[in-house]
Amino acid sequence: MMRFLVTNDDGISAPGIDTLASVARQLGHVRVLAPVAPSSGISHQVTTHRPLRLSEHGEDEFALEGTPVDCVRVGLRGLHLQVDWILSGINAGGNLGADVYISGTVAAVREGTLLGKPGIALSHYKRRDRDFDWSRAARWTLAVLRQLLPRGCPSGSFWSVNFPNPAPHDPEPEIVFCSLDPHPLPVQFQREDNLFHYRGDYHARPRDPDSDVAVCLGGNIAVCLLQLRPGS
Prior knowledge:
By secondary structure, the protein is an alpha/beta fold. The protein has one domain (2-227): Stationary-phase Survival Protein Sure Homolog, Chain: A (3-Layer(aba) Sandwich), CATH 3.40.1210. 24% of the residues lie in helices and 27% in strands. The protein is built from five helices and eleven strands. It has helices spanning 15-24, 68-78, 104-114, 134-151, 212-217; strands spanning 2-7, 28-35, 54-58, 61-64, 85-92, 119-124, 157-163, 175-177, 189-192, 195-198, 221-227. Strands 3-4-2-1-5-6-7-11-8 form a nine-stranded mixed beta sheet, sandwiched between helices. Strands 9-10 form a two-stranded antiparallel sheet. Strand 9 (189-192) and strand 10 (195-198) form a beta hairpin. It starts with a strand and ends in a 5-residue tail after the last strand.
């Protein structure tokens, strides 16, 4: 039976991690170890200056007072869990292009790769005018896992998956293997005296036509193989 460590950066109580864990349980044994509180956008931050408190959240579910990367480290090096894959998500928001360097969701899987475990980060893009449909996301997750788990990961690499946010009547999205978009995020600020308010337009970001940004915003499931080292 395949063994999974499931984590996220939205926190142990987020609906996305419940969806991911329930799907993974159809494919193997699941242990959930996630941050107590939301910790989005903290990238590969780790905690080394204080103890990390672990508490039970349910059967085979634990919450850690730490970051997503802390969760993977504690799971693999603190609790010595025997797992075959690290799964992270489902993040409530896309992690496309340059987002992968900011994302705690992606960082958890990257840490697993550094520690020798293959991984998949799953994120769900959201339009401002549409809610998430987690039952639909569960269906997509199962289809993606059934494709990626048999493939495995080449050494030093991991998968990043982004679900689109189509309208209910739109056709089912296709799974598209693509490259990571190289463009920077459209970062702008509004200044009020010495206060700078972020006003970047995420939805207007530039994109290459065959990249993950274009695939996901175009209504399909974007799947990227990311590498720890360029050219590895």
